[in-house]
Every structure is written in C-alpha cells, then in structure tokens.
Specification:
Layout lengths: L6 E5 L5 E6 L4 E4 L4 E4 L3 E7 L8 H14 L5 E7 L5 E6 L4 E7 L6 E4 L4 E5 L3 E6 L4 H5 L5 E6 L3 E7 L2 E6 L4 E5 L3 E5 L3 E6 L3 H6 L5 E6 L2 E6 L3 H10 L13 H8 L4
Antiparallel strand pairs: 1-2, 2-7, 3-6, 3-10, 4-7, 5-6, 8-13, 9-12, 9-16, 10-13, 11-12, 14-19, 15-18, 16-19, 17-18
C-alpha cells in the first residue's frame, strides 16, 4: 500500500467526529479548521497541497494547490504525524449536523468523486484533486458546479454530509435522478450528467431547482438528505430583516403583519 494504514472510530450521532488512531510515524491529512483535539506527541504541520507523493517538488505542490483553489478550498492542508513511541489519537469534527462517511479507497477502485466541500480527512498518501465533468452543461447549470473533488489512493478517507446519508448501489443501466445539492459522492464508474426539469409549471412552482443530477450505473452513490446550502438558505430566510421573524408563528408575527408595535 502507498497510503498510511490508520485505525479509526466514528463517535456521536447527529454531530459526529472521527477519532483516528496513529501508530508511531503515521500521518493523517485534514482540511484546515477541522481539528477537534489531539494527544500530546502529535506534530501538526501545514503543507502546500495535500502532501501526497504526486505533489513532490515545487511544481507538483503548486499544481496541487492550484487544483484546490479551483474547488474553492484553501491552498493548504494540515498534516498530523505521531512522533511518539506509542499509539496516539487525533480527532476531526463535522462542520454541521450530519454524518461522517468512512471510505476505503482500496475497496472502491482507488478513486472517489465527491462534492468540493465534502472532504474531511484522509490517510497520508491520498491525493485530493479535481474532477471535471465531461459536459460543460453540468458546470453551468448544476448548482454545485462542474468541478468536483477527486480522492485517489488506496487508504482511508472520510467525507462529511448533512442530515441522513443513503448509500445506493446502481446496477448496469440503473438511473436515479436527485437534487444536485444532495449528491455527496460516487464511485468513478458512475456516469453523471445534469438534466433540465421538464415542464414550465414544475420548474416555476414545484419548489425545486430547474435542474437535477442524473446518475447512471453501474456504481455506488452516497446521497445526503440535508445539503448545507439548503440548511443555510432556511436559516437566512428565518433571520430578522431577511424575510423572517424572531417569533415566527407567535403573536409577535401577527403584530408585525398588522404593522403594530409592541
């Protein structure tokens, strides 16, 4: 194996964190800001790119950092290395309510395509790059953009998604259509495209977007029930001054409708 072999435990229910156990000299990489806690004896270092073997040398590091910039992520990642003589633990937390999905790339063809903000952490050696969709229509109309993250290697990686996670296995020829924001990850053999919702009434009054993702098997797809964009829009809509009310549904809301003061 080219990647470090790490043990882990996922703790919690709706606000999970993953606790990674590192043997001496083992390393895990993570997004900046995802650290929750770590034992004494673990060395933390910020690196340009993802620190994988494909990014050795200045040119490789610059290309890796540039790819991350295209996905809207930070140019830097953080490496956590156990420099002690015994086992140590480091934990990474979910950024919002949902689930952490452990993915063993060695069992998934060595590659996973995921949403650009889904990656949380991985064993050192996993390459974090970008995956361009074959059709530009997926980029212009897909909501989440046609640039997605590509995780390659043969080690463990952890991605995060909102709400409840549903793993769907597609047989050859199977087709599933989902909201573009609900797509978390998929194996590289899944064919992915964007389709327009048919019918003007459906598009204007159905409460959904004009486009959805069409996934065609074979392959495996992970779907989330609560995309962060949907959660954020609901929170924003309920904020005072943004079309919402602090006491929505109460007497205060009635006074606001009637133009009264309290």
């Amino acid at each position: 194996m080219n990647n470090h072999e790490i043990d882990y435990e996922i703790i919690g229910d709706d606000m999970q964190f993953v606790q990674v156990e590192l043997d001496p000299s083992e390393t895990v990489i993570a997004e900046a800001g995802s650290l929750m806690m770590m034992d004494d004896g673990i060395h933390m270092e910020t690196v340009f790119g993802d620190g994988s073997s494909s990014q050795n040398g200045l040119v490789g590091k610059l290309m890796g950092a540039g790819k991350r910039m295209l996905t809207g992520e930070s140019l830097f990642m953080t490496m956590f290395t156990n420099e002690s003589s015994g086992k140590k633990h480091v934990s990474f937390a979910s950024p919002y309510p949902g689930k952490i999905i452990p993915l063993d790339l060695s069992e998934l063809g060595g590659k996973i395509i995921c949403q650009k903000d889904a990656f949380l952490a991985a064993a050192k050696g996993v390459s974090v790059g970008i995956a361009f969709q074959r059709k530009l229509g997926a980029g212009f109309f897909g909501g989440e953009g046609f640039i997605m993250q590509k995780l390659e290697g043969d080690g463990m990686t952890f991605v995060h998604a909102g709400g409840t996670i549903y793993k769907k296995v597609l047989e050859p020829g199977d087709v599933v259509r989902i909201d573009t924001g609900c797509l978390v990850a998929m194996t590289s053999d899944v064919n992915y495209d964007i389709e327009m919702v048919r019918g003007v009434k459906t598009a204007l009054f159905g409460g959904e977007g004009l486009f959805f993702a069409t996934l065609r098997g074979p392959g495996t797809v992970w779907i989330q029930s609560l995309p962060f964009s949907r959660l954020a829009s609901r929170v924003f809509a309920a904020m005072p001054g943004a079309g919402g009310s602090k006491d929505e549904g109460g007497l205060g809301g009635l006074f606001n409708i009637l133009g009264g003061d309290r």
